[in-house]
Specification:
The protein is α+β, with helices and mostly antiparallel strands. It is built from 5 helices and 4 strands, in the order αααααββββ.
């Protein structure tokens, strides 16, 4: 189960970071052909191959050429955000997700995508 959680975390992280970097690349696409080409290729890999790690690598390399360290900044920001939410338990019989937020100082339950209760 731990291996599944780690793999799921990695996939979600790669997909999220790719989406963020693709959006960020808009500031360079209009005047940098390399960023535009990387955007196109990364988006294709993301949407058709579902290879989020490869898609992230493609856009990261192009952006780091025009703005060194940009990928690391996004990764650091993402990791800080993820540290603030610890998933405690997922019910085996429904769409329940219990989590604890250090930022909001409480525990919450999400049922079918909507917050239903807080401070459990």
């Amino acid at each position: 189960m731990e291996q599944l959680e780690e793999e799921t975390y990695r996939i979600v992280q790669d997909a999220t970071l790719t989406e963020q970097l693709l959006q960020y690349s808009n500031r360079y696409r209009s005047f940098d052909d390399n960023v535009q080409a990387a955007f196109n290729k990364s988006l294709y890999v993301f949407e058709h191959d579902y290879d989020y790690a490869q898609s992230l690598e493609i856009i990261s390399k192009a952006l780091d050429l025009v703005e060194p360290g940009v990928t690391e900044r996004f990764v650091t920001s993402y990791e800080k955000t993820r540290e603030n939410i610890r998933f405690l338990e997922r019910s085996s019989f429904g769409n329940f997700l219990f989590f604890h937020s250090q930022q909001k100082k409480g525990s919450y339950v999400i049922i079918e995508g909507q917050m239903k209760a807080e401070s459990l």
